[in-house]
Amino acid sequence: MTVLGYALVVVGVVLIALGYARARGPWQRHQALKAQDENASRYRAWRGGPASAGEEKTGASVAMAMLRREARTWAAAAAIGVVLVVVGFALALG
Question: Domain tally for the chain?
């Protein structure tokens, strides 16, 4: 395996670990906010109000969008890490 191959594998593994660690927290918080939003929607329907908040922009919806964007960014970093690992191993075999 060449030095470049080793370097790509190491950088790829670091990106995978970092991406997973940094994406997990925002994704879990996003799922919790989503569950709370669904619960609030069911409560509004039970009370006889509108089933959903409609196009109303709330603080929770803004937070969910920010958390979703952060989780996607770090998931993309992990995906790039996977590509680097594959390229590093391909260089070793080729």
Answer: 1
| Terminal alpha carbon distance of the chain | 9
Q: Are 80 and 17 in contact (CB under 8 A)?
A: no
Cα–Cα distance, 33 to 29 (Å, whole number)? 6
pLDDT digits (tens, 9 = 90+) for 45-82: 888 876 555 567 778 889 999 999 999 999 999 999 99
Q: What is the largest CA-CA distance in the chain?
A: 68
Q: Which domain holds residue 71?
A: 3-93
Interatomic CA distance for residues 14 and 25, integer angstroms: 18
User: Judging by beta carbons within 10 Å of its beta carbon (0-12, 13-18, 19+), is residue 47 exposed, middle or buried?
Assistant: exposed
Residue 77 near residue 21, CB atoms below 8 Å: no
